Amino acid sequence: MRRDMKLGPVIGFAWLVSMSSGFFVLGSIASAQNRPVPPISPQIDSSRPDWENPAIFARGKEPARATAFPFESRELALADDRSASRRFLSLNGKWRFFFSPNVDGAPADFYRDDFDISAWRQIRVPADWQAEGYDQARYNNVTYPFPANRPLIPHDRNPVGSYRRDVDVPASWSGQDVILHIGAAGSAYYVWVNGQQVGYSEDSKLPSEFNITPHLRPGKNSISMRVYRWSDGSYLEDQDFWRVSGIEREVFLMAAPRTRIRDFTVRAGLTDNWRNGTLDVIAKVLPGSAAMTVRATLFDGDRTLSRRTARVSAGRAEQNVRLTDRLTNVRSWSAETPNLYTLLLELTDAKGAVIQATRQRVGFRDVAIRGGQLQVNGRPLYIRGVNRHEHDPDTFHVISMESMRRDIELMKQNNVNAVRSSHYPNDPRWYDLADEYGLYVMDEANIESHAYMEMGWKGEKERKLYHLGYDPAWEAAHVSRVANMVERDKNHPSIIFWSLGNEAGVGPAFERGAAEARRLDPTRLVSYLGLGTLPELKPNPYGDIFAPMYYTVDQTIAYAHDGRFAQPLIQCEYSHMQGNSGGNLADYWDAIYANPKLQGGFIWDWVDQSMNARDENGEPYWGTGDLYGPNPGGEIEFGDGLIQPDRTPNPHLFEMRKVYQPIAFRADDVAKGRFTAINHNDFSNLSEFDLGWILLDEGIEVARGEMPTIDVAARGQGKLSVSLPAIRQPDHEYVLTLTARARGGASALVPAGHLIAWDQFVLPNDAARGVTAASSGSAVVHETANRVTLSGGGSELQIDRITGLVDYRKDGRSIITGGSPNFYRALTDNDIGTQIARTHDLWKTASASRTVQSVAVERSTRSDIAVRVRFAVGNGAATFESRYVMHGDGAVAVDAQFTPADTSLPAPFRVGMAFVMPSEYSNLEWYGKGPHESYQDRQTGAALGRWAGAIAAQNHDYMRPQETGNKVAVRWLAIRGTNLTTLRVKGGQPLSANVLTFPYEDLSRRPPGTRRSSDIVPHGHVSVMIDAVQSGLGGTDSWSPHGRPLERYRIPLSPLRYVFTMSNDQTASATQGAMPASATASPIEF
């Protein structure tokens, strides 16, 4: 991740400032606890255990192979249900388990038949043992969770889990090879069968397979595993995630014929202008004493498209058998059109009897760099991507099929077309889903040595000393992790990139890894950031694309115009979604659409990595790194997902959905209903979508219609014309929304009618304007030494001469009080991480330390009376003047003026006024952007409309309390309560506003504030903030000055004036036709 690197010139888990003389490190967290020390010599020492020897990362393992199962019949293979096969035996479930906090405490001979394990507890498999109540889960980003002195591991602090279970191996398996498959476990483990050691493995995210046939006996057999939490392999697994351990993926036994197809590669390409297909199948066959036949049959549904056979001669050595064919007019695979065929691969004997049958889904597609652009099937792509960690809030890294399917469903419904498997190969079922539903995948090797990478940033000497990629002792381990990933996942059409790892430095190991990936699979591209020293954030020889992290918008544009580099730029991480974030995402995509060399990127990241927890009162909250004890991972790294751990959306998911929409509408002549439809799809024609329009009158729908289907090819544009009903109402705002929806049958996960894209346009209104009625009645003023009271229309406004605050009342009952100048906000994660709060704290003080300079009464007309309140704020930093005009009908006009006295000060977070209302007020209606929160630099995904909902539903429970609930472009709002007078606030210009059911100060994370989402509950009063503007959120990153709001989304330190009117009435409910609103309301479905 992220709070660590980034950007030339802002890179690192550090503050870096680009100066003409070079790079200056202002402070680094990477130098904190467990900082790497210079590596000992020799790195390889046979006297150390395997788990401290980088040269030993596998013993007794079968060669890596593609994910497949050797069914005994073609019918079973085509059904692809292992549980129905007599050759499959699942070992998931309960195992006996013994936990030791250190190596010496682990039982020495537990794998022996005579070792008594009857007192051992049981544990689930798969499971991380920390989720089962053992050991401490740790969250680390850069720092290792143990002293970093590679390859050594502290024996006294290296927990060990000992596993054992019995299994009855079917007698029918006699004469076959019995393979033990361990989907993922780690960081390192030994395996015994019936007391005999069969192997050892490292790499906690790839499977290991062991041929245990020689060690089996008839009937009951014991399988034992000793899993070490840390090993030398852990030095290659320094990712930003929960450091947990155990058996994380499925375990099973399979009976494989001794004469079998051990592995196979399927390459389904395109030719003849991407119309026709080429099928190339390479089968690795373990032959027998008689000749056999390999048969490859390709199906399209029930229809046979191709059948090829090849002879396998008798023998003992593994043979490569190749079967090829050409097919005409194939339906190609892409994320938009995930067309799949079925390949049945069979091994038959001389009589035609099936020895083995295996099914593989096949997608015909072509991946290449052409003309300086990433292309699939001859067309340039936009990568609308996300990074995704495997995370479950209860089970850590053990992920269910239902969770994976839900992730893909959410991605497809929110316009995501690509995912990076950050930062390790995922559960193999994930790639099956990506193939089926259509996602481009960057598959990433389980390699990250972040802390060592940072130690090498100072220069070439340090780089060659610390970067593991330069150490020959570690080269084979690097290459093995890349090669085994390629071998496992090579047959998935969804994978278009191999990534050599993440934040692991540079060196010859990566050159070899890239070469090996290309040797094994020349049909895909290779990606790797390869950051060696700070000035080297530029394309490198390892990668086919340039995949930087956290380039700013301006940096991406500069790269697009830099003629020195030909590679397309696709950010492997960008737009860091830490807490209330996601600002300026639309700015990135404005740049991408304007520059062909920019082709998108992968947002960091998909899901918050917090855990389900309950506080002392039993209330649920999202637990962070210290949930399980002291943790150097700290507080802030967790909440950087587009969705929460339970897959509830964070509000910035809706921003991404809108920015990522593959269709846009542009106004040519709004008054005449003329528009251009822009097709940003890479393959789909606009004729595949249903287009429509909706007309809003003051935010309420008054008409809607459909538009004719238009034929616009991918990346093309077409004209639209909309015939609208006549607009008659003067002084009304009319907004036209153009929509594109999924057509029925378009996707199994995207239902018919699902909103894919929308844009809004304010229509000119030339209807004759009516005469504004003058307020009836007259306002009166009553003055005392401490108070000025303005009265009119049964309402009154009391102004305190000492505090300058007001109390707006109706029939003697207070509606709203306050009116204090407000320049601060509850700090967001970005405000803290980018340290902008340090320079802006003075505005928090200014908001609190105001003094009243004057309270003056003015009569503006015969019926209206004004009171002008002038504040000095922040020890002379600025003045704030509020002018209140009481009209005869009881409405109060507010004219506020902010005037900074010292323009050298940093800009405030907001300029506005803070009020409170009685807690009995419970409902909010507004005309502005909704239905969820929005901010100056994160409002693209919010739509103009009339919205209504409970006030308690407007704030979002971020993992840590922070600013939330704001609305922009607010024309007016109404706050209601049962049997209470309704307050209305109408802006003289669009307002920024926020209404919450608790004191706004509760969102502060500094004493006496809060730190858990469960701490935020309705109490005290309703907070109302009526602002001229609030600063943007930022979001390029969350740790450097670049992560602060872009200059155009900050508040200029110059005089600022805004006006609004407060009034009251007795309306008891929201306007008919207002749309439901909440912090996590579904994106606008219109």
Description:
This protein has 5 domains: 14-32 and 383-658, Glycosidases (TIM Barrel, Alpha-Beta Barrel); 50-62 and 82-256, Galactose-binding domain-like (Jelly Rolls, Sandwich), CATH 2.60.120; 260-367, Immunoglobulins (Immunoglobulin-like, Sandwich); 661-763, Immunoglobulins (Immunoglobulin-like); 783-1076, Distorted Sandwich (Beta-galactosidase, Chain A, domain 5). The chain has 12 helices and 61 strands. The strands form 13 sheets. The chain has a 17-stranded mixed sheet that branches. A 7-stranded antiparallel sheet has the order 3-13-12-15-9-5-6, with no helix packed on it. Strands 33-32-31-30-29-35-34 form a 7-stranded parallel sheet. The chain starts with 13 loop residues before the first strand and ends in a 10-residue tail after the last strand.
